[in-house]
Amino acid sequence: MHISDQKFYDKVAKKVGGYKSEAIHKSHFPNGNPEEIFLEQLVKYSDKDKTALDIGCADGRFTLKVAEKFHKTFGIDISSEMLARAKQFQEEQKISNVTFQKAEAEKLPFQDKYFDLIYSRRGPSPYTEISRVIKPIGYYLEICIGEKDGKGLKEIFGRGQGFGEWDISVAKTKIYNLVAKGFKVVFVHDYFYSEIYPDIENLNLFLQSVPIFKDFDQEKDKENLRSYSEKFSVSNGIELKRHRIVIVAEKL
Ligand SMILES: C[S@@+](CC[C@H](N)C(=O)[O-])C[C@H]1O[C@@H](n2cnc3c(N)ncnc32)[C@H](O)[C@@H]1O
Q1: Among 12, 100, 122, 209, which is best to mutate for testing ligand 1, by the most ligand atoms less than 8 A from CB?
Q2: What kind of fold does domain 2-21+34-149+165-194+243-251 have according to CATH?
Q3: Domain residue spans in the chain?
Q4: Which of the two ends of the chain, N or C, has the fewest CB atoms closer than 10 A to its terminal CB?
Q5: Which residues form the pocket of ligand 1, taking CB atoms under 6 Å from any ligand atom?
Q6: What is the end-to-end Cα distance of the chain in Å, rounded?
Q7: Computed from CA positions of residues 221, 227, 228, 233, in that sequence, does the dihedral angle turn out positive or negative?
Q8: CA distance 134 to 69
Q9: Distance 124 CA to ligand 1 centre (A)
Q10: Do 150 and 212 touch, CB atoms closer than 8 A?
Q11: Cα-to-centroid distance, 93 and ligand 1 (Å)
Q12: Does the model's pTM come out above 0.85?
């Protein structure tokens, strides 16, 4: 499974120059923008004295953006291509308090109780390892994909990340697992929102750069994409329903 993740993200990094979609879309957030809320929470628990870890840092853009809030940040990822981009961005931005290194999230190359704060922004969340390397009273923050994310799209494609698990609450599962590893969950919220892609080309471009379908093939999936675009057509484009969860937990 990790090998396929590594290959997928290496491919994305090579193709689009980092972890981002160049596709155009507009977003509508009826109950708040989860990315903004994650950032707010991260800033709230940050401190210039703290050492932080970003698990699954990808091209490091986010890691670098928040680096000044911490004394030192380590960014780890399994994709060498992503890390190469991260180091390039770091050099361009002349940021010296970040170390990017290749590592598996499940085997973190750090001693016990090393970090004051750990975060995962749509990256892996191996709670046993996180629990090992975080200090007592340290904070763990995560933004992750909810069970209803892209449900309509996955139903038409008949596959995809978390396919068919629409009724298994990711938030509840995560709370249960975090508590089992000695954390107290201090913030948890589900966010449901829409992205509107102006046309099928932009949705196609987006699907090539995200792991919703790691095997997405614009030729083989042409008909699926056409059916979806017809069914979810709205006045200003094609609607994609998203679901994110933001969690903050304190290590007891
Ligand atoms: C969705 S991207 C994360 C994006 C990034 N955190 C950001 O804020 O833009 C997921 C990242 O996790 C990495 N990843 C996946 N499985 C991993 C593992 N087992 N160990 C370390 N990194 C992993 C992938 O290579 C990829 O770069």
Answers
A1: 122
A2: Rossmann fold (3.40.50)
A3: 2-21+34-149+165-194+243-251
A4: N
A5: 2, 5, 9, 19, 56-58, 62, 76-79, 82, 104-106, 121-124
A6: 31
A7: positive
A8: 18
A9: 6
A10: yes
A11: 22
A12: yes
Rg for the chain (alpha carbons), in Å?
Answer: 18
Kindly report the three-state secondary structure assignment for every residue of the chain: CHHHHHHHHHHHHHHHCCCCCCCCCEEECCCCCHHHHHHHHHHHHCCCCCEEEEECCCCCHHHHHHHHHCCEEEEEECCHHHHHHHHHHHHHHCCCCEEEEECCCCCCCCCCCCEEEEEEECCCCCHHHHHHHEEEEEEEEEEEECCCCCHHHHHHHCCCCCCCCCCCCHHHHHHHHHHHCCEEEEEEEEEEEEEEECCHHHHHHHHHCCHHHCCCCCCCCHHHHHHHHHHCEECCEEEEEEEEEEEEEEEC
Hey, what amino acid is at 173?
A: T
pLDDT digits (tens, 9 = 90+) for 129-178: 999 999 999 999 999 999 999 999 999 999 999 999 999 999 999 999 99
Which of these, 103, 135, 100, lies nearest to 118 by C-alpha position?
135
Q: Which two tokens stand for residue 4?
A: 């396929």
Q: pLDDT tens digit string along 19-78? A: 555 789 999 999 999 999 999 999 999 999 999 999 999 999 999 999 999 999 999 999
187 exposed, middle or buried (CB, 10 Å; 0-12, 13-18, 19+)? middle
User: 62 is written with which tokens?
Assistant: 């986010």
